[in-house]
């Protein structure tokens, strides 16, 4: 059995047949996971300095030199690295007096902060499979983002207390600005306009309090309130759609969940994208008290928006990017700042970021060529072993080598 | 002719799979460089399924393929897969939550005879010095 690191479900039931060092057959992978597993054979990186092929040693030494000479280095990525690599990354940031941030600062960080602080009640995905009778995908579309979520946990499986499953015992609700693939599967779809989630929450709260909702179709809002009130064990799965819509009003979700828990049991599991974003958040929180966006510049951990990748990309004089492609995923201005900074990219595969990097260090693919541990979206720790032999260093080994050089 | 739209981005499993074949692959461009428009909006623009459109705002501009929405009418709302193309239009002057407006992009859409913007061109724009 292998573990798929294609998303934060970390599916542990992947069956593979290997032939002459390559994957010949796979079972249980979703389309996304299949693409992830197949990608090990395409667009792999090689050690480079200024686009010229060099030895791995030369690339690592050059990376260390760039970081040591920088006054404001940024270490970014981390959500696609193991806990072991993240641990060294945080220590490296301390040693350099660097800013460290991961992808959560512009996606699920606001919610994860509330979950890790215990301000939002949460549960495991195994609890969802065994007990949940209502799942609410809010600004989330697992059919595209976490393709096996519905089949393994939220809707289709026969859990210990939900043997009649989706046919009789489970309800799936989707709240979204568009009729997503998941919304087409579930009969309870509620449409909100972009930015309308705060009003939607206010209406749900009104219904629960026995008042007339001011927003949306009143009849349907009352229907939703009735379903939620009758729920025995409900789970809200917020996606980035909800986080982006609420932003500074994220406490409204906290209020809603608190109100719902006066009449039933409601948990929250953020739909984390990358396989170990939660791991990084937890490690940094344990170390510094903050889940992301931390500067160690003056020897102390300081957190603030100025230390998020969006801001730090503009002020840094060198950046190390690991397991991420910010030139593809971040706004043009941020991408442009990084593209023109002395950039070090540690990545198994070619990307816009590796193409722009002054130094490229190839790495092993986790779950395939390297093992380690990670925290699933629900907080469960998952260990995995490599399944292919590869003559490549893991992120953990590369970072350790950079540390030695420094 | 020009239409003002709010673009909502989303993640697409087919684009994600294509990305694994490579950021520079034709499949990745096919699934990324497209905009889903309301049918009435397309009619108002005189644009048919598969034609190219210019999408621009004060941040940047791209040429992508227009696709007709199969959902209930949603005039003024357009949908794009999150990608380097959509990110050309996203502001990076963020509020204190540090979250850019990935899912609420204001832009103008108009018919275009230009070719679809290549990813190599997006890359060159990022590497270009100056504002």
Please supply descriptive tags for the structure shown above:
heterodimer; A: alpha/beta; nine-stranded mixed β-sheet; 19 helices; B: alpha/beta; Barwin-like endoglucanases; six-stranded mixed β-sheet; 5 helices; 6 strands
Can you walk through the features of this model?
- The complex is a heterodimer of chains A (406) and B (131).
- Chain A has 19 helices and 18 strands.
- By secondary structure, chain A is an alpha/beta fold.
- Helix content of chain A is 39%, strand content 18%.
- In chain A, the strands form four sheets. Chain A has a nine-stranded mixed sheet with strand order 4-3-16-15-14-5-6-12-13, sandwiched between helices. Chain A has a five-stranded parallel sheet with strand order 9-8-7-10-11. In chain A, strands 1-2 form a two-stranded antiparallel ribbon.
- With 131 residues, chain B is α/β, with parallel strands linked by helices.
- Chain B has a single domain, classed as Barwin-like endoglucanases.
- Chain B contains five helices and six strands; from the N terminus they run E-H-H-E-H-E-E-E-H-E-H.
- The mean pLDDT of chain B is 93.
- The chains are: A alpha/beta (406), B alpha/beta (131).
- At the A-B interface, helix 1, helix 6, helix 12, helix 16 and helix 17 of A face strand 1, helix 1 and helix 5 of B.
Annotate the secondary structure layout.
The complex is a heterodimer of chains A (406) and B (131).
Chain A: E1 15-19, E2 22-27, H1 31-38, E3 48-49, E4 52-53, H2 56-69, E5 73-77, H3 83-96, E6 99-102, H4 109-116, H5 125-131, E7 134-138, H6 142-145, H7 149-154, H8 165-168, E8 171-176, H9 181-185, E9 188-191, H10 197-208, H11 218-230, E10 234-238, H12 240-246, H13 251-260, E11 266-268, H14 277-288, E12 294-295, E13 302-303, H15 309-315, E14 318-322, H16 326-329, H17 332-339, E15 343-347, H18 352-356, E16 359-362, E17 372-375, E18 381-384, H19 395-405
Parallel strand pairs in A: 5-6, 5-14, 7-8, 7-10, 8-9, 10-11, 14-15, 15-16
Antiparallel strand pairs in A: 1-2, 3-4, 3-16, 6-12, 12-13, 17-18
Chain B: E1 3-10, H1 13-21, H2 26-32, E2 34-37, H3 39-45, E3 52-56, E4 61-68, E5 77-81, H4 84-87, E6 105-111, H5 119-127
Parallel strand pairs in B: 1-5, 2-4
Antiparallel strand pairs in B: 1-6, 3-4, 3-6
């Amino acid at each position: 059995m292998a573990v798929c690191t294609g998303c934060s479900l970390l599916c542990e039931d992947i069956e593979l047949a290997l032939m002459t060092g390559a994957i010949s057959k796979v079972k249980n992978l979703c389309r996304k996971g299949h693409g992830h597993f197949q990608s090990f054979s395409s667009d792999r990186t090689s050690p480079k300095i200024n686009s010229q092929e060099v030895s791995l040693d030369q690339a690592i030494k050059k990376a260390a030199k760039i970081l040591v000479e920088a006054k404001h280095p940024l270490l970014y990525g981390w959500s696609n690295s193991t806990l072991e690599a993240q641990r060294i990354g945080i220590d490296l940031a301390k040693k350099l007096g660097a800013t460290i941030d991961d992808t959560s600062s512009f996606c699920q960080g606001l919610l994860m902060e509330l979950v890790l602080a215990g301000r939002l009640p949460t549960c495991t995905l195994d609890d969802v499979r065994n007990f949940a009778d209502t799942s609410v995908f809010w600004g989330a579309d697992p059919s595209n983002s976490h393709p096996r979520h519905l089949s393994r946990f939220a809707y289709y499986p026969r859990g210990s207390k939900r043997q009649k499953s989706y046919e009789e015992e489970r309800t799936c609700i989707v709240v979204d600005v568009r009729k997503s693939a998941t919304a087409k599967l579930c009969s309870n779809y509620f449409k909100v306009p972009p930015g309308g989630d705060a009003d939607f929450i206010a209406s749900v709260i009104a219904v629960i309090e026995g008042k007339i909702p001011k927003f949306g179709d009143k009849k349907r809002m009352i229907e939703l309130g009735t379903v939620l009130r009758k729920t025995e064990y409900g789970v809200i799965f917020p996606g980035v759609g909800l986080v982006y819509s609420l932003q500074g009003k994220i406490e409204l979700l906290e209020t809603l969940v608190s109100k719902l828990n006066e009449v039933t049991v409601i948990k929250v599991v953020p739909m984390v994208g990358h396989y170990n974003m939660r791991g990084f958040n937890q490690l940094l929180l344990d170390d510094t008290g903050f889940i992301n966006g931390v500067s160690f510049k003056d020897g102390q951990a300081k957190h603030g928006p100025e230390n998020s990748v969006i801001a730090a990309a503009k002020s840094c004089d060198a950046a190390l990017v690991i397991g991420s492609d910010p030139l593809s995923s971040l706004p043009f201005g941020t991408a442009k700042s990084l593209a023109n900074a002395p950039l070090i990219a540690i990545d198994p595969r070619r990307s816009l970021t590796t193409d722009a990097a002054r130094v490229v260090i190839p790495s092993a693919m986790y779950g395939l060529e390297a093992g380690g541990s990670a925290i699933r979206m629900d907080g469960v720790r998952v260990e995995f072993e490599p399944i292919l032999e590869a003559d490549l260093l893991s992120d953990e080994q590369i970072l350790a080598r950079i540390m030695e050089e420094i | 002719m020009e239409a003002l739209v709010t673009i909502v981005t989303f993640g697409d499993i087919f684009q994600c799979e294509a990305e694994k074949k490579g950021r520079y692959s034709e499949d990745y461009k096919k699934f990324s460089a497209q905009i889903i428009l309301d049918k009435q909006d397309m009619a108002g623009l005189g644009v048919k399924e598969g034609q190219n459109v210019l999408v621009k705002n004060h941040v940047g501009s791209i040429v992508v393929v227009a696709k007709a929405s199969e959902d209930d009418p949603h005039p003024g709302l357009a949908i794009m897969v999150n990608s380097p193309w959509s990110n050309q239009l996203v502001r990076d002057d963020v509020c204190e939550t540090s979250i850019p407006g990935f899912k609420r992009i204001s832009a103008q859409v108009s018919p275009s005879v230009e070719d679809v913007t290549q990813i190599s061109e997006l890359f060159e724009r990022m590497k270009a010095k100056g504002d």
